[in-house]
Structure prediction request, 581 residues.
Amino acid sequence: MTAVLDTTTSHRALPQVNGGVGGLLRGEWVKLRSLRSTWLSLAVGLVLMVLFGWLFTATAESGGPGGDGGGPPGLSFTDPVGLSLAGYRLAQLAIGVLGVLLVTGEYSTGTIRSTFAAVPRRWPVVAAKAGVFAAVVFVGSLLTGVVAFLIGQASLGDLGVGLGADGVVRALLGLALYLTAIGLFGMALGWLLRSTAGAISTLFGLVFLLPVLGQLLPASWGPDVVRLLPGEAGAQLFSLVGTPDALGPWSGAAVLLGYLVVAFTAATVLLRRRDA
Amino acid sequence: MIEVQHLAKRYGEKTAVADLTFTVRPGVVTGFLGPNGAGKSTTMRMIMGLDRPTSGTALVNGKRYAEHRAPLREVGALLEARALHPGRTARAHLASLAATAGLPASRVEEVLDLAGITSVADRRVGGFSLGMGQRLGVATALLGDPATVVLDEPVNGLDPDGVLWIRTLTRRLAAEGRTVFLSSHLMSEMAQTAEHLIVVGRGRLLSDSSTAAFIEHAGGESVRVRSPRATELTGLLAADGVTVTSAQTGLLDVRGLDAATIGDRALAAGIAVHELTVVRPSLEDAFMTLTRDEREYRTDEEIAA
Prediction:
């Protein structure tokens, strides 16, 4: 351990600029991949999505959640694709939480200081983290969506449809985009609130709780509020059977994107001002 | 080179750092000394561009931290023990930063080796002892082979081996021409490591001088003399500019004469001397002298509250 820090040799050999976009993305990829919790959360969420899709489709005929009569709205025999993908509600939970943790984990452990010391402008970190996470979630959700669809349609037997059926590709791509957006929304909340508990509660409140509470609002204006919530608006990305209260796929996507833009903009502005 | 000018940080009513101005020069180890809560860590975070100063500036190698294109190449810092994700391995922690900063992967192995933690590089940091975590923190600081090294309480939690390692390492880094700035609340450790001292209390600069001058300022050397005929010896030594005090029978504390002169005079008079020791005031003494007012002020404030 003598020559390692010799100024005359190593000092000049090292590059004089930061790693650029490639370096940032690689750095964030190493961070993401080196935590067991990343893969655990993703695996749990995605496996549950397949399992529940299978459960809904397999029990459809015997009066399960997908059966005629009972069951939640949007899950019915008339929508075999939606039925097989209905487990997404659990996947979004795991993915959203993971998005939060990837950011708040840096704050709670103090690694955010090393990160910002390496990238003092800070916003490129937000972008690189989001980019890497989005790529991983998108690929994971797309593959899982296909698996859930195939298993679900197989268990529906004659009522099932094929990959080539109308809207199936749109539903699968839309679902992957939706889950990616929810993960990113969790990430933005993490940057904004810097606390795991706060960000997860906010995410749950907006995505899970408010839609349920919204059902209790007066019929005259309640649905107008509910359809603008991130989960409800975003679900139109992959929903093939429109309900009268819901937005269309494009407007749904636009509303969800709006949440992301607002949250990330606010987070980046605050990040510039705040002490790390 | 670190140049801090009129740096201040207030959190609402509370002032953490008040109008600090000092310069940390390359080539020597500069200690940043002060009791806990004196504003050392806040100052270091402002130097690193992590906390925004309320007023004033902190320049590193001539620029504000955020203006450097490759900041890790300019400044490396250990800011707090365990700023590490427990679920990540030491190697992954360093590899992610190296990638972000555009440093070659070989640098990761070099600093692991330098910090003596190559054998545990693939273990999760959560299982690290405080000392191992601290070594990984130092490895992180040196990753970019920086011209300026900032270490906040680097010896905290280190065993004697680790303390010696930090002392040797920081001296070598300074000898290589780097700027080395390390904080501590342990005065004895600083006395052995730092050549220059910047002392703060309650966010204010109390002293900025060489370690030797700082200790000198606290009262300089004295000579302890033990002799069975101490009273006679006192008469021999007494002169202008020499003070002799005796805390106990047979023991003298002499200021204003060096040990050789005292020994020679005792010999000339045929007085046996059983002990002749040069006593340097400790850094603790110097620090207490310097901060007495600060602490009295604090007590008054506490009484008022």
Summary: Chain A has a mean pLDDT of 87. Chain A has one domain: 20-273. The longest helix of chain A spans residues 123-156.
